[in-house]
Amino acid sequence: RLTNFRLLGQLVRGFDGSLHVLKREVNAFDLLVIESVRLLLPSTYEFIYRNGDYFHEPPGGMERWNEGQVGFDEESRKKAAAEAFSAHFDALPRADKDLALTVLALIFSSVKTYALESKAFRTFFAYKSKEDRRISNASFFPRYFIFAVPATMFGEMEMDEFIASIRNADEAALHSTFD
Question: What was the pLDDT predicted at 140?
Answer without folding.
Answer: 80
